[in-house]
Design a protein that fits this description.
Layout (H helix, E strand, L loop, with lengths): L1 H19 L8 E3 L5 E3 L11 E3 L3 H10 L2 E5 L3 E2 L5 E2 L16 E6 L11 H10 L10 E5 L12 E5 L13 E3 L44
Antiparallel strand pairs: 1-10, 2-3, 4-7, 5-6, 7-9, 8-9
The structure holds zinc ion.
Zinc ion binds next to strand 7.
Length: about 220
């Protein structure tokens, strides 16, 4: 009896959380700082050796703090030192994996069948793409249910908008969602006792509606 009540409660909480969660990031910005293919930090569960463009690492950390993700592939291609990273010939031509701006994700400790362990991944997919083929920026392509070779029990693909870039080259800019201390789930910034004069906030300038339209092929 108690267990049944608990389960019902959990289900209700799930529904409430799903209903209240606004889809997608509320703002994005373009990063023009130079990119670099770097190892994925340990705080973001991933397959050994996986790497991404460092400019999406804060977004990945933010996601990993909210969804139990395990990254199975990030950048796929050669490194400057000649070593190869990621899977071989496993992505479509033009894939964002070849620029280090895509990840494939499965549930951390989950199964390869579409069971309850995939529920958070499904929520993440719907957060990034509430309507099929209409990803919320900064996401450029979201591969999940309804996309061949993707979906519950297979994997979720997330890629970020970026300047058109040739295969195995870093994009000139990447669109990301800003990750502040509060947004990142950390403690809000502490108020200082001695007020520090600050310049008035200028125009935000960071929010952009620019979309990457250069690559027509879907990133698999
Ligand atoms: Zn992928």
């Amino acid at each position: 009896m108690a267990r049944a009540a608990g389960l019902a409660c959990a289900a209700l909480l799930c529904l409430a959380a799903a209903a209240s969660a606004a889809p997608g990031p509320s703002a994005t910005r373009l990063i023009h700082a130079a990119g670099k293919i770097v190892p994925i930090p340990a705080s973001i569960p991933h397959e050994a050796g996986d790497m991404v463009d460092r400019r999406i690492v804060p977004d990945l950390r933010w996601i990993a703090q909210r969804y139990p993700i395990y990254i199975t592939d990030g950048y796929s291609g050669p490194l400057p030192n000649g070593e190869h990273v990621g899977c071989d010939n496993c992505h479509v031509p033009g894939s964002d994996h070849y620029n280090g701006l895509a990840v494939d994700v499965v549930p951390l400790g989950g199964s390869s069948r579409c069971d309850a362990s995939w529920a958070p991944i499904t929520r993440l997919a719907l957060w990034a793409e509430p309507q099929q083929n209409q990803p919320i920026p900064p996401f450029r392509w979201v591969g999940y249910n309804g996309d061949a070779g993707h979906g519950c029990g297979n994997h979720l693909h997330l890629s970020w908008n970026h300047a058109p870039a040739p295969q195995f080259q870093l994009a000139e800019w990447v669109e990301v969602f800003p990750v502040g201390p509060a947004e990142a789930g950390g403690e809000p910034p502490r108020k200082k006792r001695t007020p520090t004069p600050k310049p008035p906030p200028g125009p935000s300038g960071g929010v952009s509606t620019v979309r990457s339209g250069g690559l027509s092929a879907r990133g698999d």
